[in-house]
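Example record for the data management plan.
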Amino acid sequence: GIPSRDSKVVALPSTEDAGRSETASVVIQDEADFHEYHAQNYAAVKPTVDAGGQMVMGSTSNKRNMSSLFKELYRGSPDNGWETMFIPWGAKPGRDEKWYEFVKGGVPTTELHGMSPEQFMEQEYPGDEQEALSPPRAQSIFDREMIAGMMDDCCEPIRSVGAAKVYQEPRAARKYVAGTDVASGVGMDYSVTVVVDAVSGYVVADLVTNTLQPEDFSVASMDLLEVFRNPDWGIENNFSDTVLTVARDMNYPKLYRRRVGRGRQMRKEYGWKTDRASRQSLFDELRAEFNAGHLTIPNRHGLDEFSTIIAAPGEKPQAMGGTHDDYVMALGVALMVRYDRGIINTTGKVIQMPMLA
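Corresponding structural encoding:
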């Protein structure tokens, strides 16, 4: 510290309550993503700088913990009050691809801790933010190279329909399907409706919002769908029936109905219900289509979500902590509607797309 200014520098252990009851002008948490008690320590320390101090976190991305507080704060900036800075491995002078390959080839086995050299380099020497924040390839549901390649197809919408965006005008000879994922509350997750060309897999339009009430969202979705001649529309209704109810009350002509029960007990009910089995079927279909390059997603926000979907062995696919899967789910519902209805190709034949085993 500087005695003449009555200041001091204190090094504290990485425990849950380190720093509690202190008053600090600057708090620095080094390798925050590897702090075993980071969330608890953050809660203890942050009040000490809330009166006008500054908090700085620096860290390598911990690939073993994809739902960490550090990553959540990083992804949430700047809306959450944090400012971020990313430094890629190539920022230091003298580092090039030859240097990178040399380092990768010389990583001691003792440093890998069960990772492959490629995974080690992703963690310790990321080249961009997406690589740093993305899950290990072994946990990623969707092909990372495919995501990177699809970035070239992202573009601005050609026009708007209210709050919705149109990326490709409707074509007379095309068949479209639509899917909707409904948020559990305004201002939290996003409510999303996507319209997909059933043959090409191009997302021709979407509505993404976390500000519209369910009633208004349903009406805005129908305004968009009318542009595309009211395609078959699947509405997820796990948390609320409001969007579906409004659509039924307004006599939307082509609402998806799922099969419930078997044999003589089989009936059809409106809406898409996500349970463990249907969620797995949805992700199997979506993963197969996405990784085969059969989908085009012009919305960068929507495409970004695909890099955050993970599944540990035996676990269900889900978004990492602090991220969203609303766009992913809406597109998945649209594909399940397409799968259930069949794809009408230019010869008039119905083609059923097989699920991914």
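Summary line stored alongside the record: The radius of gyration is 24 Å.
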